[in-house]
C-alpha cells in the first residue's frame, strides 16, 4: 500500500474559477481625461439666470417736481396773470403792477426751476435733450415765455396780450403730451390715470370761458382809455396856454 501511495503523481491544482480569465484579460484602464469628461457629462444641470438686458435708465417716478412746477407755472400762474390784466385793468390803476408780479416775479422762478430740473432729469436718464415732441415744445415754450416777459416790460398792447394767450394755448398742448406720452415712456409705469385727462379737459374749457367772459369789460376799458387820452390833451393844452410868449412878460 505504501508503494501505491508514493507512485501516485499529484498534478497541479486546478485553477480557481475566474483566475485564468482575469490573467489573460486584464481590466481596461480608463484615461483620467475620459473619466473626467464622463463625470462632467453626467453632472446635474444647474440653470443659470440670464444676463441683464441693456436698457436706458428711466426717470424715477418720485422725481415729478419738474412736471409739477411747469404745470403750475404755465397752466396756473400765467393764466392767473392774464385774468388779472383782463379784469383788474378797468377797476384799478395798479393792475399792471399786479400783472407783472404774477407773470415775472412769481411764475418766472417756478417755470425756470421746472425747466432746469426737467433738463437735469432727462440728461440723467440718457434719453436725449430734444429727442421727442414734448422736449422740443418745452424748449420752444420756455424761449417764448422769456421773450414775452422781456417785451412786456416795454411794450404792453393788444399784440402782447394775444401773444400771451398763444403761449398759454401751446402750454395746454405741451402738458397733454407730457402726461399722455412722456410720462409712460420715461417712467415705465404706463398711463398716469384718467384723472389728469379729466382735469385737463375741464381746465381748457374753464380758462377760455372765464377770460373771454371778461371781454364784456372792453366797452368800459375803451371808454376809460378815451377819457384818459382826453385828459392828457386837456392837460397839455393848459400847459401850453399857461406859457407866456417871449417879450410880453413884465407889462
TrEMBL record:
Cytochrome b561 domain location is 70-179
InterPro entries for this protein:
Cyt_b561/ferric_Rdtase_TM (IPR006593)
Region listing for Disordered, in residue ranges: 1-56
| Cellular component GO terms, alphabetical | membrane
**Which controlled-vocabulary keywords does the entry list?**
Electron transport, Membrane, Transmembrane, Transmembrane helix, Transport
Give the top-rank taxon of the lineage listed in the UniProt record for this protein: Eukaryota
Has keyword Metal-binding?
no
Protein location: Membrane
Give the transmembrane ranges.
66-88, 100-122, 137-155, 162-179, 199-219
Is Transport there in the keyword field?
yes
Spell out the PANTHER family in the cross-references: CYTOCHROME B561 AND DOMON DOMAIN-CONTAINING PROTEIN, OS01G0895300 PROTEIN
Descriptive protein name: Cytochrome b561 domain-containing protein
What species does this protein belong to? Answer: Grifola frondosa
Could you read off the lineage of the organism from its UniProt record?
Eukaryota, Fungi, Dikarya, Basidiomycota, Agaricomycotina
Amino acid at each position: 500500500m505504501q508503494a501505491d501511495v508514493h507512485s501516485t503523481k499529484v498534478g497541479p491544482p486546478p485553477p480557481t474559477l475566474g483566475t485564468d480569465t482575469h490573467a489573460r484579460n486584464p481590466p481596461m484602464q480608463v484615461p483620467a481625461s475620459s473619466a473626467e469628461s464622463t463625470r462632467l457629462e453626467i453632472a446635474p444641470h444647474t440653470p443659470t439666470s440670464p444676463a441683464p438686458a441693456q436698457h436706458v435708465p428711466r426717470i424715477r417716478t418720485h422725481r415729478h417736481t419738474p412736471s409739477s412746477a411747469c404745470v403750475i407755472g404755465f397752466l396756473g400762474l400765467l393764466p392767473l396773470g392774464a385774468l388779472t390784466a383782463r379784469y383788474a385793468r378797468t377797476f384799478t390803476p395798479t393792475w399792471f403792477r399786479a400783472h407783472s408780479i404774477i407773470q415775472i416775479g412769481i411764475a418766472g422762478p417756478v417755470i425756470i426751476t421746472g425747466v432746469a430740473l426737467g433738463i437735469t432729469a432727462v440728461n440723467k436718464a440718457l434719453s436725449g435733450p430734444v429727442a421727442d415732441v414734448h422736449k422740443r415744445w418745452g424748449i420752444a415754450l420756455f424761449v417764448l415765455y422769456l421773450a414775452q416777459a422781456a417785451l412786456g416790460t416795454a411794450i404792453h398792447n393788444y399784440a402782447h396780450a394775444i401773444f400771451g394767450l398763444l403761449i398759454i394755448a401751446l402750454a395746454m398742448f405741451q402738458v397733454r403730451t407730457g402726461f399722455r406720452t412722456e410720462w409712460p415712456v420715461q417712467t415705465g409705469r404706463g398711463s398716469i390715470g384718467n384723472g389728469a385727462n379729466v382735469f385737463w379737459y375741464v381746465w381748457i374749457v374753464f380758462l377760455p370761458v372765464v377770460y373771454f367772459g371778461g371781454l364784456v369789460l372792453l366797452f368800459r376799458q375803451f371808454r376809460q382809455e378815451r377819457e384818459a387820452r382826453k385828459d392828457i390833451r386837456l392837460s397839455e393844452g393848459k400847459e401850453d396856454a399857461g406859457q407866456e410868449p417871449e417879450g410880453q412878460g413884465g407889462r
